[in-house]
Specification:
The chain is built from twelve helices and nine strands. The protein is α+β, with helices and mostly antiparallel strands and 329 residues long. Among the domains are: 120 residues, Jelly Rolls, CATH 2.60.120; 56 residues, Arc Repressor Mutant, subunit A (Orthogonal Bundle), CATH 1.10.10. It is globular. About 2% of the residues have low confidence.
Length: 329
């Protein structure tokens, strides 16, 4: 068997911090950074700070944004999808004939394709996560079985309070990934985070996404499983997900999931994680303990962001902690 390839090189997260009490500078910055036209407010004074902290990596962006005390923004539709979690203050959104109000603790869509609307903000601080359009399209295609079906959102608000909490948990996890340079620099971790955010957004917010169809289920034969296994082994070092694996096997994502459940009693992505876990084991065995390389760095290289879960999964298979393997000579 040929030696497997190594994962791609690290990503450098882009971090931005900005703060000002100058009204002109604040509104210029808002207009430059976002697809928004801000209307000046007489209530803005030079003791009011507008601040932003942003990190972007792998197409994902996380922003903590404190707006002017009173601000009216005209938001233009963007190619990517952004979702807001309100940390303080209130927001009123005028969208077509709809008028929706949000307050601290709630979640809402921020911008999306064709999402033109006006918002009025009062002492608002908001956490925003942006998901690339490509990730959203792939997730929608995997869920519906049709990657050409148009996607439109029916409301700015989540489908339920439980759905909103689901988004908060997911976004909190992704922010921990982006806050740490080790995990935010791993293309495999970032790829998983993109797919997780996209799937969660489609599950949380009502849309025109049609119900999924079990397309090509009968086409998922043992030969399909073997093709999928070969593809996963050959591409475990790259940023691949369910859609890419299914496309390589010429079946729908649902069909591939069905086949793996029957033949392996696990999903294609769990199978991929097992292969990557084996690659971590190999790399730990081959790493010089004196080189300064850490278990965390090796795990992140292969797409494992949660060190506790990674260590537990590693111990369950190899019977020792990964740190023990690293120091075996």
């Amino acid at each position: 068997m040929t030696r497997s390839s190594a994962p791609p090189g690290r990503v450098t997260p882009q971090r931005t911090r900005f703060s000002t009490t100058d009204p002109d500078e604040a509104y210029a910055f808002i207009g430059q950074m976002y697809a928004a036209r801000a209307r000046r407010s007489a209530e803005f004074d030079r003791t009011s700070s507008v601040a932003i902290s942003q990190v972007s990596a792998g197409g994902i962006s996380s922003v903590d944004f404190t707006l002017p005390p009173e601000a009216t923004l005209h938001l233009a539709g963007t190619e990517d999808l952004s979702i807001s979690e309100f940390l303080r203050g209130t927001k009123q959104a005028e969208w077509g004939r709809s008028l929706e109000r949000y307050r601290a603790g709630e979640v809402a869509l921020g911008s999306w394709p064709a999402g033109n609307y006006r918002v009025t903000c009062h002492r608002l601080r908001v956490a925003i996560l942006t998901i690339p359009a490509t990730a959203l399209a792939q997730a929608a295609g995997a869920l519906s079985g049709d990657d050409t079906a148009p996607l439109r959102f029916a409301s700015l608000a989540p489908a339920s309070a439980g759905a909103a909490e689901h988004w908060k948990r997911t976004s909190a996890f992704v922010r921990t990934v982006l806050d740490d340079d080790e995990t935010a620099g791993s293309p495999l971790i970032l790829g998983s985070a993109r797919r997780l955010l996209a799937r969660t957004a489609l599950a949380v917010f009502p849309s025109t996404l049609p119900p999924g169809h079990d397309l090509n289920v009968r086409a998922a034969t043992p030969a399909t499983i073997r093709r999928a296994e070969d593809y996963i082994h050959a591409h475990a070092h790259t940023d691949v997900g369910l859609s890419e694996i299914a496309a390589a096997c010429q079946v729908s994502p649902r069909a591939l999931q069905y086949a793996f459940a029957r033949h392996h009693q696990l999903s294609p992505m769990r199978y991929l994680r097992r292969i990557r876990l084996a690659r971590v084991h190999r790399d730990l065995l081959e790493t010089d303990p004196g080189s300064g390389t850490t278990v965390t760095a090796v795990a992140a290289r292969w797409g494992f962001a949660n060190h506790g879960r990674f260590s537990a999964a590693y111990h369950a298979i190899y019977g020792v902690l990964p740190s023990t393997t690293l120091h075996i000579r």
